[in-house]
Design goal:
This protein is α/β, with parallel strands linked by helices. Among the domains are: 16-194 and 259-332, ABC transporter transmembrane region fold; 337-427 and 540-601, P-loop containing nucleotide triphosphate hydrolases (Rossmann fold), CATH 3.40.50.300. It has helices at residues 2-5, 19-30, 34-67, 71-120, 123-128, 131-172, 174-182, 184-192, 195-221, 223-228, 232-258, 260-285, 290-332, 391-398, 421-426, 442-446, 455-464, 491-505, 521-535, 547-552, 570-576, 578-600; strands spanning 352-362, 365-375, 380-384, 406-411, 414-415, 428-431, 509-512, 539-543, 555-560, 563-568. The chain has a six-stranded mixed beta sheet with strand order 6-7-8-3-9-10, sandwiched between helices. The protein has a four-stranded antiparallel beta sheet with strand order 2-1-4-5, with helices on one face. Helix 8 runs antiparallel to helix 12, helix 9 (195-221) runs antiparallel to helix 11 and helix 18 runs parallel beside helix 19 (521-535). The longest helix has 50 residues, at 71-120. It is elongated and about 120 Å long.
Amino acid sequence: MGFILDGLDTESYDREYSDRDLLLRIISYFRPHGRKMALVALMLTLNSVAGSARPIVIAKAIDQIAETPTQYLMALAASVLLLFGVAAWVTNFIRQWFSARVVGDVVLQLRADSLDATIRHDMPFFDLHPTGKIVSRVTSDTQDFSDVVGLVINLISQILMIIILIIWLFNINVGLTLLLLGMSPIAAVIALSFRRVARRVTQRARRVTAKINAQIQESISGIIVAKSFRKEQTIFETFERNNRQAYQVGVRRGLTLNTIFPIMGFANGLATAMLVFAAGLRVQTGAISPGEWYLFMQAVGFFWYPLMGIASFWSQFQDGLSAAERVFALIDAQPDVEQIANEPVDELEGRIEFRNLRFSYSEKEVVLPDFSLMIHPGKTLALVGHTGAGKSSIAKLITRFYEFQEGELLIDGRDIRRLDLDMVRRNLGLVPQDPFLFSATVAENIRYGRPEATEKDVRKAAEHISGGEWLADLPNGLETNAGERGANLSMGQRQLVALARVLLKDPAILILDEATASVDPFTEAQIQSALQQVMHGRTSVVIAHRLWTVQNADRIIIIDRGRVIGDGTHSSLMAEGGHYADLYNTYFRHQSLEYIESMGN
């Protein structure tokens, strides 16, 4: 049992919804399609009438033909049955057509809402939750939800047929009809008793599916690392364990849900035997005719089939509710980063101020305990320090990817939490150390931040980088496909594309997680001159990994354990000695010697 449930805990944002809340939420998605649903309901009713009329016609025909077996009566009965059959087919076709359209529209909206909510979540959400599990909710769960809607419509059709038949049977024999109805609570109790366990085992099945999706997605994304360390077998063994777990969960789910059918089958057989005996006695006494006896026995099938269907339906219905619950939990997940207002932002001057700011990723470790810093507009600030000092955290807070716990962060003297976040980010440009490119052309990747930019604007931005010489190395120039995550380009080319993308955006504040840290010296030389032009006149915050960035910065801040322990220019800090001089002599100077040597080669 422990192995089966290992690793299948709920996500931190999961929540439990009552069936009532889920149904009301689902209904809200169908409400805009009221007219189509009304037509579906009408066709559903007419289809049920046509379907239930057929056994009634057969029962009447049996009694009539038994008395006067003429060809005319046989032909009339056949014609009426054919007429009802055609009516059932036509109404069912119309019902299926419009219900498919409505369900398709609902799923379309549900997927749009879930993806919209996902991409609006802040960075901590994606840090905590694997991509594969999120994708599973947006795709698989929404599809399963759509499947269960069809089941609901079919069940409603069967229930309408039961109601019509019951009304007719009351006119034939009240006692037998009450006996038939008296058996329904037994079937209902059996079916509904599986409600809780059905929801529970279905949730576990979904979690293990999401777990497998996450592992496969992660394995494929990191395949180059896995192959370089010869970990293909380890990946497969991990998948085997997860797959075995999915098998165990699936078996338990199947056994749990399928247990109901033998129980329902036994109850059905018992009920049929009782009605055969009771109705047979009434035929013997003349209380009902043979045709009416046939109708009652047909009614048992019509009556018990939907009840047994409820058992099957209930497991699948719980499957759909579980899917809806997971999708709604994704949509309703509360963000860590919350704006307290949406004040408009036009052009930014670029003045950034941290005031006694406290920030931590978790309660266990405080990254910035009491951080204060003024970044003047139009100046280049370099952040240096050892790994884990808090440099990247400062950049992430400026971009508002994470929420700080105490203090203030001001942009042009205004609390960043009060500003329209979309407008703030339009004025921000970020070039990470490992840039992400979409599977599109180089031109489309450059245009990503400004979709309205013309081809001339894109080319101008690209040629601003090292005079556009790097474009000659691309097979099709700006029309070269970058591939998934930029796989068709070298790291240096990806950095150049990312830099051109920011250039085209023309932000007031530029944040560089040292765009040249992962490139070769020749490509670095291509970027340096362009960067100096780009940073000129803009507020630039640079996480420094290269000597030239440090030397050319207007101001250098040394960070250690989230605190400022040095502040000045390269020359002034070197003159002071201390931490910066030690850092320069042990890291930057060694790096500069490697750079000179590589350029000489």
